[in-house]
Amino acid sequence: MDFGTFLVQCLNSVQYGLLLFLVASGLTLIFGIMGVINLAHGSFYMIGAYLAFSLAPLFGDQFLLMLVAGVVLAAIFGYVLEWAFFSYLYQRDHLQQVLMTYGLILVFEELRSIFVGNDVHGVKVPAWLDGSFALGNVMSYPWYRLFASAACIVLAAGLYYVVNRTRLGMMIRAGASNRDMVRGLGIDVKRLYRIVFAAGVALAALAGMIAAPMSSVYPNMGASVLIICFVLVVIGGIGSITGALVASLLVGFVDTFGKVFFADLAGIGIYLLMAIVLIWKPEGLMGRRP
Amino acid sequence: MSPVVASVSAPSSPRRGAFVVPVGCAIALAVAGPLLGNYASDFIVKVMILSIFALSLELLVGMTGLVSLGHAAFYGIGAYVTVLASGNEGGNFAVLLVLSMGAAALYALFVGALSLRTRGVYFIMVTLAFAQMAFFVFHDTKVGGGSDGIYLYVRPALGALDMENRSVLFYVVLASLVFTYGLLALVRRSRFGAALAGIRVNEQRMRAAGFPVYGYKLAAFVLAGALAGLAGFLLASRDGVVNPELMAWHNSGEVLLMVILGGLGHLRGAVIGAVAFTLLKEIFSTHAVMGPLADHWQLTLGIAIIVFVALLPKGLIGLVQRLSPKGGA
């Protein structure tokens, strides 16, 4: 492997890791704050990708506008879903949450197959992001992937800012640690939860939309991304956003370089990583011991 | 720290005569076996295999309080080992049975040793992830024929015990179900089972009382893995083919659903759940009943799951108990 290829793979790893972080942060947000284990989170990612596939022809080269439209749609969808469904799950135990969200997955998957079919689709990269960035003759790298990384970094920073520096974030964090106390302070916890849930759905869908032009849009994409997110939440540690970020980048590197060096066994790399972390630190890299 | 509860409640000791219904069912099946047509016999064998699979998970979820979402891995490994170890000439029934259960138990030892270091929702995630790992090993490599799976050329046999013969298959599966049910009923009543029940109710207290909690949970996990391997062995012998889908997480979700659907904490719940779930799936995918909706059985099944969990948190057994006037059938 020459230096140029190595550099390209590094960039790919970071880009993939950041994308995973976007999905995982929504999962962590929903689990960390509402205590709901949501197996259907991968479906939101899938829905995002299919949104991109359906909206792209309408928006043409207005890619950013399409992302905004998609996020708004996803957030509305999340808001309604929370109201109609998830708000009843908070009082239930994990077992029932697992089962009901598993039922939801079946519903989403089948609705997808009814409305969009089971074919694999591609989404075009917008013209202004087409082409590659060249660094002399060392390497060249697609502009779109650079854009994807940049978008994820901006979003991650924004998320960090909102959670740690704003009044909304303060309420979210307080609601996570003591729901009754926050309600006692006169904050509408129900509405707060609904907003957080909608934000989690929007984040996953946005990740799906950004991913669509890079990886094709295919039926099983939700389940595969969900399981990878579980792996990185376990690696990163309980409820730690920083841990999730570190784990996402680690998983991105292991997966990308695994595919380069061990094509056949690439799928197993991240699980081995998870096994090693569990042996070494069962609470995860940044988690606190329960 | 939770306050010390006055009495350590023993696992609800099964009522005298609780075995009448299961034994009666087993005898009825044994007698009815030769009278059944091919379709009915096939269907019952399928349900019995799934019942064994569900019972093995009940040991974890219902008896120990460990929600595993990766149980299909052990089922699939049992099935794959049966086919892989058979070769072209077919294999010895006893050897294959031991190998498939042993391999599943071994993987359960590995997964359990690691995943039991976590708890709660992380345990769910870790078990699911390790099952996906097993899935990818068989899906992405040529070990087991990749995504197409592999065929079993000759079914396991040992003298007259030839799984090629339909009625032998029927009785072997029935005997395995009786064995599994009986074994777990014994486990429930044993000191080991009482310890598992204690762990389910209050793990901290059991640890404080000096029980090696991790060891007990690991033993339960390995035993459950081995029994799932048994179900896998039977499935491979019945179908004559295995593919990675056996280990897919949908399968882990379905078996978990069977256990819950029937009713947690009861052995018969797992069996009832397996029967009910298989019937439900059969009905939802039958055109004669559902019309064009049969093509979209995942949709109806998904909605049914949501409704069931919402309305019947205690499963079908809970429904029976609620409907019966004395409050405990």
Observed structural traits:
heterodimer; A: 290 residues; mainly alpha; ABC transporter involved in vitamin B12 uptake, BtuC; two-stranded antiparallel sheet; 3% strand; B: 329 residues; two-stranded antiparallel ribbon; 4 strands; 69% helix; disordered N terminus; cell membrane (chain B); transmembrane helix (chain B); branched-chain amino acid transmembrane transporter activity (chain B); transmembrane (chain B); membrane (chain B)
Task: Report on the architecture of this protein.
- Chain B: It is found in: Cell membrane.
- Chain B: Keywords: Cell membrane, Membrane, Transmembrane, Transmembrane helix.
- Chain B: One of its GO terms (molecular function) is branched-chain amino acid transmembrane transporter activity.
- Chain B: InterPro entries: ABC_transp_permease, LivM-like.
- The complex is a heterodimer of chains A (290) and B (329).
- Chain A is mainly alpha-helical and 290 residues long.
- Chain A has helices at 3-34, 41-59, 63-84, 94-115, 143-165, 167-177, 179-184, 189-211, 221-236, 241-261, 269-280, and strands at residues 132-135, 139-142.
- Chain A has a two-stranded antiparallel ribbon.
- Chain B is mainly alpha-helical and 329 residues long.
- Chain B is built from 14 helices and 4 strands.
- In chain B, a hairpin with a 2-residue loop joins β2 (157-158) and β3.
- Chain B starts with 19 loop residues before the first helix and ends in a 6-residue tail after the last helix.
- Mean pLDDT of chain B is 86; it is low at 1-11.
- The A-B interface holds A 31, 37, 39, 88, 92, 94-96, 98-100, 102-107, 109-111, 113-114, 223, 227, 230-231, 233-234, 238, 264-268, 271, 274-275, 278-279, 282-283, 290 and B 61, 67, 69, 114-115, 117-122, 124-126, 128-130, 132-133, 136-137, 139-142, 249, 253, 256-257, 260, 264, 296, 298-299, 301-306, 309-310, 313.
